[in-house]
Automatic annotation (TrEMBL):
PANTHER family: CATECHOL O-METHYLTRANSFERASE 1-RELATED
EC number: 2.1.1.6
Pfam (any one): Methyltransf_3
Family to which this protein belongs: Belongs to the class I-like SAM-binding methyltransferase superfamily. Cation-dependent O-methyltransferase family.
One annotated GO molecular function: O-methyltransferase activity
Gene3D superfamilies, A to Z: Vaccinia Virus protein VP39
Any Gene Ontology biological process: methylation
Record's keyword annotation contains tRNA processing: no
InterPro entries: SAM-dependent_MTases_sf (IPR029063), SAM_O-MeTrfase (IPR002935)
Record keywords: Catecholamine metabolism, Methyltransferase, S-adenosyl-L-methionine, Transferase
Record carries keyword Transferase: yes
Protein name per Swiss-Prot or TrEMBL: catechol O-methyltransferase
Length: 278
């Protein structure tokens, strides 16, 4: 048997995510923050302030904005692409529960991040609502479809690696998971570091999107639409999921909200509502 290899552990070289976990579970007031999502988030924020070790979490301003969207749209299920250590899952899982929602599915590729997220979600008392799925997002999306866990997406929070934004949206569109008048997508970091391909897609007309697809290279064997859903549900192996054509017929009402990130930096969250299909 080949020796197991671990290509990477956490997301940061100094493993600050593990340091965070130790810090939180060593707090003298641990019992008083248990089952209190806001107190757990405040403890994470304190860690960042005291150690000056930045974490790639959503942060308070963008977090409040997306929490308000969840409050307004009242989805039953939220899917998040990119969970990291669970900050947004705790923040939005709490908002979802307050809005009467039932399930927050946090998709995270890195098992160490996911393990930390699970501990912090548990500490926050959100185990009944937040589930962390460990795998590349395209595989978790397919698994959720295969296991009949989802047949649509009401609210999608996109916050993983920016070069995957448009590809995962294409997969979701191709699987027919977006519903006009229901589905809302909030995509973080659309200015810093930016997701130009994603913005170009959600802002384009169906005709412009058809041109974008024509100019893109897809594997020869690629399936789409009902054929792709059928292949996934039947458990077919090696189905192409990472590079499948989106469905250009979706119509989005889409806009960017900008946020001052301090130190002269501005970032933006693109909110795209599915308003129809051509
Ligand atoms: C910006 S962080 C997420 C921050 C988190 N949403 C929050 O606000 O607390 C991005 C995370 O996406 C994860 N990630 C990157 N590519 C991914 C993929 N293809 N599938 C799932 N997770 C991915 C990274 O491991 C990282 O933990």
């Amino acid at each position: 048997m080949p020796k197991p290899t671990v290509p990477f552990v956490g997301s940061y070289d100094d493993l600050r995510e593990l340091h965070l976990l130790h810090h939180i579970f060593s707090l003298p007031q641990l019992d008083s923050i248990r089952n209190n999502p806001k107190a757990v988030l405040a403890a994470i924020d304190d860690f960042v302030q005291v150690t000056e070790k930045r974490l790639m979490t959503i942060g308070p301003n963008k977090g409040a904005f997306i929490g308000q969207l969840i409050h307004d749209h009242k989805p039953s299920t939220v899917i998040e692409l990119g969970g990291f250590v669970g900050y947004s899952a705790i923040l939005f899982g709490d908002a979802l529960r307050a809005a009467g929602g039932k399930r927050y599915l946090s998709l995270e590729i890195n098992p160490v991040n996911a393990a930390i997220a699970n501990q912090l979600v548990e500490l926050a008392g959100l185990r009944d609502i937040v589930t962390v799925l460990v795998a590349p997002s395209h595989k978790s999306i397919a698994r959720l479809v295969k296991e009949n866990e989802i047949d649509s997406i009401e609210f999608l929070f996109v916050d993983h690696w920016k070069d995957r934004y448009v590809y995962d949206l294409w997969l979701i569109e191709s699987l027919g998971l977006l519903k006009p008048g229901v589905s809302v997508i909030a995509a973080d970091n659309c200015i810093v570091p930016g997701a130009p391909d994603y913005l170009a897609w959600v802002r384009a007309s169906p005709a412009e999107k058809a041109v974008q697809l024509k100019e893109h290279q897809f594997p020869e064997s690629v399936l789409q639409g009902a054929d792709l859903t059928k292949a996934i549900k039947s458990g077919a192996e090696n189905v192409e999921l990472e590079n499948v054509p989106g469905d250009p017929s979706y119509l989005y009402e889409t806009s960017l909200t900008k946020f001052d990130m301090g130190s002269g930096r501005t970032d933006g969250v693109e909110v795209s509502k599915v308003v129809g299909k051509e």
